[in-house]
Amino acid sequence: MVTPTGLILLFYLVFYLFLAGMFALTMYIMLLTLDDYKPTWQDRLVTPGMMIRPKGDQLEITFSVSETESWDNLVQNLNTFLSPYNDSHQAQTNDNCPADQYFIQEDSGEVRNNPKRSCQFNRTMLEECSGVSDRFYGYNKGQPCILIKLNRVINMLPGKDGQSPYVTCGAKREDSDKIGPLVYYPPNGTFNLMYYPYYGKKAQVNYTQPLVAVKFLNASMNTDINVECKINSNTLATGSERDKFAGRVSFKLRINDK
C-alpha cells in the first residue's frame, strides 16, 4: 500500500518529468528555427566599432625606445596577430579578387553556396608595418605602427559607387601639435570593397579581416598623445557622442626616449 508521503513524491516526480519534457520539446522546436550559417535575428548597426593592435592596457600604448623590453611584447603581439596574413598562407586558402567591387556569393534558392570563398589580404600589403621589411614595426626607432580593424558585421556593405571606406587618424585638439605626420598602409588607409560582404564565421571559414596600418613618423617624445582614428564612408553613418566606439577608436600613445 502506497503511503501519503509516497504519493506526494510520486506526484512531484511525474510533475518535474513533465516540466523537463516540455522544456526539452520547446528547446528542440526553437533550435529547428535557427540557421547554422546566418543569425535568425540581427540588430542593424548604424556603424560598426573599431579596434587596434597591438593590444595595450586600456587602449594605451606606452614604451621607451631605448628599452627593448618595453616594446618587445608589443612586437610579439603584432607578429602573432599577423601570422594568418602571411602571403604563403593567403595564397593557399583565399582568392586573388578584383579590387574595388563587392565579392558577392549569393545562395541559389534553398541550395546554400557554402563554404563561401574569401579574398586575400596579404601581410606585405601593410608594407613598412608588415613586420617583413622592418621586424620591429618601427618601435625601436620611435616610429610605431598601429593596426586598425573594423568589427565584423554580417552582410554589411560599407561603401557604394566603387568607393571603399578609409581610415583617418588625428590627435585630440589639445595634442594636435604633438602627433606629427602619419602614413597609412594600404595606401589611403582603405578597407577595400572586395572584403565585403562578410557572411559569418561558419559560412566563410577562411575569411581574413582587412586591416589598415598607421605609422607615426615623428610623434613628440615623453608626452601623452590622445589619438582618435575613425572610418570614413559614403554609406556608414558618423558615430555620435553617445556611442564613442561607433566607427572610431581612441587610444593614448606615449613614446619615451629613455
From TrEMBL:
It comes from Scophthalmus maximus. GO terms for biological process: intracellular potassium ion homeostasis; intracellular sodium ion homeostasis; potassium ion import across plasma membrane; sodium ion export across plasma membrane. InterPro entries: Na/K_ATPase_sub_beta, Na/K_ATPase_sub_beta_sf. It is a single-pass type II membrane protein. Keywords: Cell membrane, Disulfide bond, Glycoprotein, Ion transport, Membrane, Potassium, Potassium transport, Signal-anchor, Sodium, Sodium transport, Sodium/potassium transport, Transmembrane, Transmembrane helix, Transport. This is the non-catalytic component of the active enzyme, which catalyzes the hydrolysis of ATP coupled with the exchange of Na(+) and K(+) ions across the plasma membrane. One of its GO terms (molecular function) is ATPase activator activity. Its main location: membrane. One of its GO terms (cellular component) is sodium:potassium-exchanging ATPase complex. Belongs to the X(+)/potassium ATPases subunit beta family. This is Sodium/potassium-transporting ATPase subunit beta. The keyword Transmembrane applies. It is found in: Cell membrane; Membrane. The keyword Transferase does not apply.
